[in-house]
Amino acid sequence: MPALDASVVVPARDEEPRLERTLDSLAAQAYDGRLEVIIVATGTETARVARAHPTVDRALIDDRGAGPGPARNRGAAAAGGDVLLFTDADTVVPPSWVRRHCRHYAAGDVVGVGGPLRPLEDGVRHRVLFRLLSDWWYRVSWPVGFVQQPGCNCSVRRTAFDAVGGFDDSLGFLEDTDLSLRLRREGAVVYDRACPVDTSARRQERVGYGSLFWTYLVGYLAYAVPGRSPSRDYFRY
After folding, report:
1. Residue 173 and residue 236: Cα distance in Å, rounded?
2. What percent of the chain has pLDDT over 70?
3. What is the CA radius of gyration of the chain?
4. pTM
5. Alpha-carbon gap, residue 123 to 79, rounded angstroms
6. In this protein, which residues make up the domain named Glycosyltransferase 2-like (predicted)?
7. How many C-beta atoms surround the C-beta of residue 68 within 10 A?
8. How many whole angstroms separate alpha carbon 109 and alpha carbon 196?
9. Tally of CB atoms within 10 A around 131
10. CA 217 – CA 191 distance, rounded (Å)
């Protein structure tokens, strides 16, 4: 089977200090098919870094600054790949990242793929909690149908993405989980535990793991316990 055309979409909001490292990791991809990289940039300096990097095919300016979901949708609308891959501007992907994601689509029923997250920052606390919350939690929840492709390590078959309407622009929180659960109506969503990415733990450091865990737990209840959970407004800005 010939390699599929793939497009990587990266939303980047004021990420000029970190974006180049992300782009360097995308430039190192070992992939035989056609690969394009699309940056959706908010901020003049972020756009400048994106346009200056040789691996970037298109740098779109996001004047709305409405969040990662709308930015990913805009990048996807400009993409030409059969597979859409999404990562973030504070994330470093391994050289096999695109290839590992795309190989799953040889199975015709696969519509989405996700993988684990590891912290870029050093420290036992980060490593242990990332392993627990961004790997083992997925291994437990995925088999029972609660699929949650993390936004910085996920891919979608283009036809399925269009069929479900992409990311919900109104959601500023758990928009990746929302997309994953809607994708299940179109086919299989696969968890590849051997396809990790390294991403920044700055949000965890700023907010705290306990507070972040509670916020996500309450949000997850909106899907798991219909009628007894927070309203959809919980997910909006």
Report:
1. 7
2. 83
3. 17
4. 0.89
5. 37
6. 7-129
7. 21
8. 23
9. 16
10. 20
Residue with tokens 């051997």: 194
Angle at 44 between CA 43 and CA 49, to 5 degrees: 100
Give the pLDDT band of residue 146 (cuts 50, 70, 90): confident
The predicted structure's pLDDT at residue 230: 39
Note whether 153 and 91 are within 8 A (CB): yes
CA distances from 78 to 51, 58, 84, 114, 116 (A): 16, 9, 11, 22, 27
The 3-class secondary structure across 5-63, one letter per residue, is: CEEEEEEEECCHHHHHHHHHHHHCCCCCCCEEEEEEEECHHHHHHHHHCCCCCEEEECC
Beta bridge partners of 40: 11, 60
Q: What is the pLDDT of residues 60-100, one digit of tens each?
A: 988 776 778 899 999 999 999 999 999 999 999 999 999 99
| 221 neighbors 229 (Cβ within 8 angstroms) | yes
**CATH numeric code, 6-235:** 3.90.550.10
